[in-house]
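Researcher: Structure for this, please.
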Amino acid sequence: MTGKWHGATHSLREEFVQLLDREHLRELHRVSGVRHGLVAFRQFATAAVAAVLIVRYASQPWIWVPAAILLGFMIFSFTVLLHEVVHQAVFQRRRGAGNRILAWVYAIPCGLSPGQFTRWHLDHHKELGDDEKDPKRHHLTPKIIRRWFKLLYFTPALFPIYFRAAGRESATYPPEVRSRLRLERAVVMSVHFAVIAAIWMAWGAAMVFKLYALPVFFVFPVAFTINRLGQHYDIEPDDPAAWGTLVRSNAIWNFLFVWSSYHMEHHYFPGVPCYRLPELHDALQPIFERHPMRRRTYTGLLWDWLVKNRAPHLNWH
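Model: Predicted structure, token format:
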């Protein structure tokens, strides 16, 4: 119970006690392994259907291109499922082996080191609001406020940007942790190279682009960056309750982003599983009314970010 976020939200936690029903909050924290499994099955099944459509209709771009876009969004959605593992929001009881296995299952399609993601994300929660100690804000947020540089995050350039940021943060870890993370990255990359080789041998180089390169290198960065815009870019720096962006979500975004559009709600109560975040959002209305925050859409955030060239982590109103 330390860090920037904990120290800044003492009064906010008192408001939670005063304004929210404790029994309802306890129910919202109830975790269901079956329900998580159904969500994971839905995402993997959608990815599999998209992959089959790409292979089956490889000569018909009006089918395989939308399928590749959908596949890219599904690959991004696995980062959200990994995020659930990090917050112990999968099993009712602590299951170390089960969580470790799932972490690898979700991390490999995204090309992530599960250990790096875990430490990076938990440090982000702990130090939210700190320009230096929050690794996402310190290393990943664009420091060059130029449209051309922001647009790089929507392209394959995201990968060197992200891995450079992760490398800078991991350089501060103990040597044994860095060694483990290097091994994890080697395993993940080996799997990706094996997948590329298998696709090439089965269907040729053109299919490598359609089934792998387009979803991973061109669609994933778009999904990642849009989702990140709805996290902590349009905020109220003077009010810790509004250190995140309140996004007006809908059924499409809930499916593509696995309810991660409810990001400020997640920071309030990180133990609430993703499929209960819409209900948590409704329960938090007294907090939102006491701390007026603009409800944003992703379209509006993109307009402010790229057209108006807003700087991150400020009040865009």
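Researcher: Any notable elements?
Model: The beta strands are 246-247, 295-296. Residues 4-307 form one domain.
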